[in-house]
Each structure stands twice: as structure tokens, then as C-alpha cells.
Amino acid sequence: MPLKVVVDADSGVAPWRQVHDQIVRLISAGDLLPGSRLPPIRQLARDLALASGTVARVYRELETGGWVHTARAKGTVVTEAADRPGKTALLHAAATEYARIARDLGFTPEEAVIALRHAQSP
Predict the structure, then answer these.
(1) Under 8 Å between Cβ of 25 and 67
(2) What is the pTM of this model?
(3) 9-45: buried (b, 16+ CB within 10 Å) or exposed (e) per residue?
(4) CA-to-CA distance for 20 and 60, rounded, in angstroms?
(5) pLDDT, tens only, 76-90
(6) How far is CA 36 from its chain centroid?
(7) pLDDT digits (tens, 9 = 90+) for 5-51
(8) Which residues contact 116 (CB under 8 A, 6 or more apart)?
């Protein structure tokens, strides 16, 4: 199954971060199961029109975070759930990043909470 990842050059988010976050979401949602192989670095870089070094960084970050394991003979594979962060840890990491961005933009915590509530309402 091909890896369904898209890079938006106009998003303001670094390409490596976009790819990393999408792969984490695919693993968290169960779309990439433990033991699933990720494409080789050069192939994914070519598919996404990115530099190989950018995709290599993604894979390093995923491995550091416990999402994947790289072995010479097997390539890069998704780890078992016990070896990676849980959903609560992911939520806290996202909240920390959101708070940093809101603070950098000059918003108060109250304004950030209002924006978050607005974003979550149907």
C-alpha cells in the first residue's frame, strides 16, 4: 500500500514536519500497522519531490520518537504500540506546540483557549 502523504509548500510548516506529522497520524489511526514498511528514503523523497536529506531527517525523528525502527535488512518499519508514545502524549505535545505558537503571535492564554474551542465546534 503506498504511503499517503502530501506536502503543502504554502502551509508555512517545514516539509519534514508535515511528512513526520502525517506519518505519526497514519500510525496512530491504525492505517500503518506495526511491521509495516515505509518506503526507502530515496523513493519517498522522489515521490514527494523533496531532498533525500529531508526524508532522512523525518525517518531519524520517527525513530527517535519510537514510531519506527530501521534495520539494514528490513528497512524502516513501524514499531509495536508499546514502543511508542500514547495518544495522551501526542495531545500534550500538540498542545505545547499550539501554546507556543499562540504566545509567539501575541495571544493570551484565554484567547488561545477561545480559538481552540472554536476550532473544535462542529
Answers:
(1) no
(2) 0.71
(3) eeeeeebbebbbbbbbebbbeeebeeeeebbebeebb
(4) 10
(5) 999 987 666 667 777
(6) 16
(7) 999 988 888 999 999 999 998 998 889 999 999 999 999 999 999 99
(8) 98
